[in-house]
Amino acid sequence: MVKIKKGSLLFFEMEKYVISLGGSLIAPNGVDTSFVKGFIEAVEEFANRGDRFYVVCGGGKLARDYQNAADRLGNVTDSDKDWLGIKATELNALFLHQGFDKGLVYRRVLGNPDDTTSVENKVIVCCGYRLGRSTDYIAVKTAISNKITRVINMSNISHVYDRDPSNNPDAIPYDNLNWNDYLRIIGDKTKWAPGMSSPFDFVASGMAQRNGLEVCFIGRDLENLRNLLMAKKFKGTIIRD
């Protein structure tokens, strides 16, 4: 939501947002109903004021659990595991979708970003749909298709670090990065594999860079999300060129 002052009057201009919502926030170890309800309330608060949201749900732990189990089954291809991941994103998205006010949310979950361009509802919930692509990729494609220049990334990390903070307690968080530096941090990854994990997928990052998008990492803090949507100071990392 953008505040515009005209004379002594303050107006709010409708904004469009893409949120890449990590599956491990929806179901970290079983479904986190408390977080999901809080997220829905935050989005609806701004949607009721006129803003539009495209929420792309990841598969998170649910997807990786199924993919790891599939490895133990044997005779399972990468395509098979990708489909498990896609269906995990769809299940997370369906659960989130059911919690939204039916007067605000589009009637079904969408996969293909091109399908979102003709939807006029204030909330559109999306999931994975294409083999070999993450939901970060879907979020970037959705932003491009709808002429949105920013993707909000919500996950279990609030910043991008110079090293993996789970293995390096002295890892340094960044407030701002350019895309080349970010791509150097996550390493030279040129081939997709099901269940790959990085703060933001390398394929999606390259596409965001080529199209002049910025990505904001804000963690799971819903007050932090509200601050960003109100154009207030927020905690996190912004990647842009």
Notes on the structure:
The chain is of the alpha/beta class and 241 residues long. The longest helix has 22 residues, at 78-99. The strands form three sheets. A seven-stranded mixed sheet has the order 5-4-3-6-10-11-9, with helices on both faces. The chain has a two-stranded antiparallel ribbon with strand order 1-2. It has helices at residues 23-26, 33-47, 60-73, 78-99, 135-145, 179-186, 202-210, 222-229, and strands at residues 2-6, 9-13, 16-21, 52-57, 123-126, 150-154, 160-161, 173-174, 176-177, 214-217, 237-239. The protein contains eight helices and eleven strands.
What would you say about this model in short?
It is built from eight helices and eleven strands. It is of the alpha/beta class. It has a single domain, classed as Carbamate kinase.
The assigned structural class equals alpha/beta
Under the CATH scheme, which architecture would be assigned? 3-Layer(aba) Sandwich
CA radius of gyration is 18 Å
> The biggest beta sheet, please?
7 strands, mixed
- CATH H-level homologous superfamily name: Acetylglutamate kinase-like
Separation, N- and C-terminal Cα atoms:
23 Å
Mean pLDDT: 91
Task: Count every helix, treating DSSP H or I runs of 4 or more residues as helices.
Answer: 8
**Uncertain regions spanning at least 5 consecutive residues:** none
- Major sheet: arrangement of strands: 5-4-3-6-10-11-9
